[in-house]
Structure formats: C-alpha cells, structure tokens
Amino acid sequence: MKYLLDTHSLLWALFAPEKLSADARKEIVNPENDISVSVIAFWEISFKYALGKLEFVGINPEDLPAAVEQIGLDVLHLDQEDAASFYQLPRLAHKDPFDRLIIWQAIRNKRTLISADSSFKDYAKHGLTIHW
Description:
By secondary structure, the protein is α/β, with parallel strands linked by helices. It contains six helices and five strands; from the N terminus they run βααβααβααββ.
C-alpha cells in the first residue's frame, strides 16, 4: 500500500511514535508498504520553526531529510503537474496551504494520507483516502 505522512505524523514518527495511532504505527513499520513524506512537510516545519511555533532539541530542520532517510521513508517531491493542477482542489473550510498541498499530492499520487487531522475528511468526496 502507498502512504503519505502528514507533517504531524512525520514529526511523531520521528520523535514521539507513541502519539501515532496503533494502526498508523503498524502501517508505517510494515516493510510491504511504501511510506513517503512530502517535501512540503519539510517546508512547513522550517517555516513554523522560523516563526517559533516548533522547537527541537539536538536537531535542526535541515537535519530532518537525513532523519527521514535513516528510518527508511521516501520523499515525494512536488512536481510540475502537482503544482499546476493544484487549483482543482476545492476550497473547503480547511485553509492551511501546506496541508492543502499535501492533501492534493496524496490525491494526485494515489496515496493514502496518514493523518489525525479530522478536518481532512471533507476531502474524501474529492478522492482523499485517510488512515489513522
């Protein structure tokens, strides 16, 4: 199965796996699954770190790609088709541009999004599959 981690799911997988649901943890560690993280998550983390909304101990945002590689996750890059077609994602109540791009990547790349964010369920009728 192909999965994409939401930003909080990535941070929890790296630093607080106990915050992940048991099902999410099971899917992330299953070697038969293809688990990716969006390059957008790195951007969101860096942005929030710069604003003081995120803090790390012993690691900086620029260390995260190596940490992701170390635990065996792939990086899903934002390609020109994802970017150019982003306008097709309906504007619903959820306004966060980082989340919306990650949602769009999950839909376009046919990946199930691992996320605890209950507001994402509104995108199910537009092709988003969520696992938690």
